């Protein structure tokens, strides 16, 4: 099977979009707070199940790559255009909410707002996974680690908000 240069570019763009989204969100958060994530995270009272700060820069790029690959699979599908458009709309909504979370939590220190936003993000993510499943099961399943991580993020965000009121 020969892959065209056009398909390689499309794949790279699909993977780059979530990676750049996460990077830009991080940069804006640091600019707003004037403090690095590591310093802010270290200064928070955290529950015992909170991971070390070093875990986040490992987990998120992996999840962003999986998101991008799944988006590529969906946009390359031969299913109906409307199904793909609906699924990708939810993909971009969850990506926008993902972008906003770090800004709310770290950049603006709005822990409760970021908690509510993470719930909304997870609900949109569930809907997106369902829409992806209707198009391509592999693309859908690639987002399960992200969904599991978001359940963890919701609980972690909640307890950090409670402990740091």
Provide mean pLDDT, rounded.
96
Which structural class matches the secondary elements?
A: mainly alpha
Number of domains: 1
Helix content: over 70%
Structural summary, described in words:
The longest helix has 29 residues. This protein has 165 residues and is mainly α. The protein contains seven helices and no strands. The chain is 81% helix and 0% strand. The chain has one domain: Ferritin, CATH 1.20.1260.
Topology readout:
Layout lengths: L4 H29 L3 H7 L12 H20 L5 H27 L3 H25 L1 H5 L2 H20 L2
Helix pairs in contact: 1-3, 1-4, 4-5, 5-7
Summarize this entry quickly:
This protein has about 160 residues and is mostly helical.
Task: Provide the descriptors you would attach to this structure in a database record.
about 160 residues, mainly alpha, Ferritin, 7 helices
């Amino acid at each position: 099977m020969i892959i065209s240069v056009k398909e390689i570019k499309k794949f790279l763009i699909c993977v780059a979009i979530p990676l750049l989204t996460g990077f830009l969100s991080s940069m804006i958060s640091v600019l707003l707070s004037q403090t690095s994530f590591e310093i802010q995270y270290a200064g928070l009272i955290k529950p015992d199940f909170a991971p070390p700060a070093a875990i986040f820069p490992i987990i998120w790029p992996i999840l962003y790559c999986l998101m991008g690959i799944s988006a590529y699979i969906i946009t390359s599908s031969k299913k109906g255009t409307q199904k793909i458009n609906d699924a990708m709309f939810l993909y971009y909504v969850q990506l926008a909410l993902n972008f906003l979370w770090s800004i709310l939590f770290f950049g603006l220190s709005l822990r409760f707002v970021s908690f509510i936003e993470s719930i909304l993000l997870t609900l949109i993510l569930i809907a997106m996974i369902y829409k992806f499943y209707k198009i391509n099961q592999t693309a859908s399943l690639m987002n399960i680690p992200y969904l599991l991580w978001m359940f963890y993020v919701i609980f972690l965000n909640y307890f950090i908000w409670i402990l740091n009121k």
